[in-house]
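Quick one: structure tokens for this chain, please?
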Amino acid sequence: MLLTTPQSVVLKAVAQFQKIEKYHGTMPRKHALAYGDDAIEELVAQGLVEWAKFTYGCGKQLKGLRLTVKGQRELDLAGIGLDGPRPSELAYEHLLILQDLYHFCRMPRYRRMMPEKKSRHYLASDFEDLVSRGYILKVRLKAEGGATHKGFVISSKGERALGASTLV
């Protein structure tokens, strides 16, 4: 697939935000405003990027563009590459939830998030505790065709806690 120059610039910019933990791999909307709306809309229509909305435990929301698996493949084909934790304060059950969530966030099948339906298999109080403490973030993705997907992703704080444990 051939990309226009503005589209490739936007795609590269979104890819650069993948490693920034503060934004959870999402290019914030305020940064996306610097690029043309037409280029962004075309990339969303082609399925190379998608709109993501994160909701933090305190009520703050972050809306932005996130690179899809298809978009990452397109970058790879184009040859554009981007190149001591404290002991955990979490209970074993919390770590098991984080471990499952970590693996869900690596699966393209579920759009790299744990769907809301799958999260109902866990004890609600444990899951909500992790959300309120900032280990898990709520996500709402707006995909092509107007479909909205709700789910959860592990935050950088959750990944650090999981890395400090012996489960992974």
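Residues 1-51+62-83 form a domain with the Arc Repressor Mutant, subunit A fold (CATH 1.10.10).
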